[in-house]
Amino acid sequence: MPPFRSLKFTPWLPLVIIGLSLGYAVTVLTRLPWWTLFLTAAVWIGVGLKLRWGAPLNARYRPMWPWSLVPLSLFGIYVYLADSFGNVDLGAVFFHLQAGMAEHGGAGKMLLALTYTLTVIALLASVTWLSRNDQRWRLTERFFAIALLAANPLLYGLGQRSAAIVTDDGAWLDRRYVSPPVSDQANAPNLLLMYLESLERTYSHELFGDAYADLTALGERGLVFEGVHQMENTGWTMAGMIASQCGVPLMPAGLLHDSQFDPLSKVVPGVDCLGDVLAEQGYRLSFLGGASTQFAGKGLFYRGHQFNTVKGKEELLPEVDDPEYVNSWGLYDDTLYDFTAKEIRRLNEEDNGPWAVVNLSIAGHAPGGFPSQTCLDRQGEFDGQDILYSVECSARQARDFIEQLEQEGLLDNTLVVVLSDHLTMRVSVWDQLTALDRDNTFIMLGDGIRPQRVQRGATMLDVFPTILDAMGLELDDNRAGLGASLLSSQPTLVEIHGLEALNGRLREETALQHRLWEGLTPQRREAEESITEQITETPSDQAEEVEIMR
């Protein structure tokens, strides 16, 4: 007799495993409440017992492997990604695999991945047992396998990206790219660019109480941009920084990379970014972040785009007074801001031309955040789950940091930009956030900037030319990269075409991808140019769009 067939209650175990797995997938992929998991499982188990799944009256055992094992595994991967990040971005998956995930700080994610793996193995074993012991399952599960493949958004996304290879026009975005300025400027201001991890402007909604109050107060003194939405390939930290500093979405190197399984040696070397533009103006450039610069090519990006000082966890940890005061990603924000203030003091004391400092916080990181001891002392105990606690912490520390620098006189002739790197991923208030019209934080403070609110249809691509414009750099037609300055009347691509159309073009784009990684595959770039020269715009493409190509 085959193993385990003699156990009296064997059908219960596979039914329970499949029912709980199905219920969990339903709650992850929808906005249904957590108790739906158990309701779904109960219905499934009830139907299974009623129909005697796994123990039919005319049972005929057959040793076979179900068709659905691979589709189930792939769907399990999709549910894991959706559960971990909220929105599944294939670009992020591909980029991190190639840029490297060393020092990712995600011990909790590793445990979650292990739990998912064990659950999927149990699910596959359950489906196999039912298929072998119930001929009805053997007859129907192959159709179930086809349905799983057709319904998996992960495979749908892969199909869309593959279709870009044969698209009629894979250079729609590339033709709209405008190189950033290289002209000199007088009385160049300093720049402090502060990325607040996942701290989107959506948190300012009344649903979230006073969590965003300190950034609201900060914005009342400066220029607040509303409507900076998130297009595809800009929804994770490196992608958000590249979009806002280079004016382009981060299209992974993918198959363009000559050694596809080797780590990248450069990050978007084919375009000039904020660091390149400011270095040409004689700026001294520094980046400081609490997490490792090895993760996702962060150090490669900043060093490759002419930053003089690039410091992350590895470089800063030896200087920390208490080496035990760290989290799984790296330094807490209060420690990081102390180091950033020290760096700004150094640059001011040298008095050797203008400076630009980029800072990346970590307190708001999904799923629960990493509030520092400073916040714990002020806000009380943190339960480890409520992201609003961490949002309040991040906003307050950013405000305190700016006010501290102002009191020391370190921000004279300085443009301060406060920016979320991207919209947050799955957090404790995910259902409330996703029910709203979400947008990123974008606040400017500095000499000559009068308090006002600007509401525009924009993306993080438009942040790049807006910063350059605010710093007094002359732009070509108020554009840089794929963005338009929000300080001008120049329409953005979103205002002209809409976000959905822009995302659709991105999925078909190949020429811009070659431009970003030019130097890794120069011969392919030349071939692309010879093709795209023959393509003309359709009337619908040109409708209401200003001439942006020179």
Q: Short description, anyone?
A:
This protein is of the alpha/beta class and 550 residues long.
List the helices and strands and how they pair.
Elements (H helix, E strand, L loop, with lengths): L11 H18 L6 H15 L18 H17 L4 H10 L7 H27 L1 H17 L1 H11 L26 E7 L16 H7 L3 E7 L7 H10 L27 H7 L3 E6 L8 H7 L4 E3 L1 H4 L16 H18 L4 E6 L12 H7 L7 H21 L6 E7 L9 H5 L7 E4 L6 E8 L3 H8 L8 E2 L2 E2 L8 H5 L1 H10 L2 H6 L5 H11 L6 H4 L8
Parallel strand pairs: 1-5, 1-6, 2-8, 3-4, 3-5
Antiparallel strand pairs: 2-7, 6-7, 9-10
Helix pairs in contact: 1-2, 1-5, 3-5, 3-6, 5-6, 8-15, 13-15
Protein name: Sulfatase N-terminal domain-containing protein
Subcellular location: Cell membrane
InterPro entries: Alkaline_phosphatase_core_sf (IPR017850), OpgB/LTA_synthase_biosynth (IPR050448), Sulfatase_N (IPR000917)
Q: Which properties best describe this structure?
A:
550 residues, alpha/beta, Alkaline Phosphatase, subunit A, eight-stranded mixed sheet, two-stranded antiparallel ribbon, 22 helices, 10 strands, elongated
Describe what you observe in this structure.
The protein has two domains: 12-166, no CATH class; 188-495, Alkaline Phosphatase, subunit A, CATH 3.40.720. The strands form two sheets. The protein has an eight-stranded mixed β-sheet with strand order 4-3-5-1-6-7-2-8, with helices on both faces. Strands 9-10 form a two-stranded antiparallel sheet. With 550 residues, the chain is an alpha/beta fold. The model is unreliable at 3-9, 257-261, 522-534 and 546-550 (pLDDT under 50). Helices cover 45% and strands 9% of the residues. Helix 3 packs antiparallel against helix 5 and helix 13 (333-350) runs parallel beside helix 15. The chain is elongated and about 90 Å long. It has 22 helices and ten strands. It starts with 11 loop residues before the first helix and ends in an 8-residue tail after the last helix.
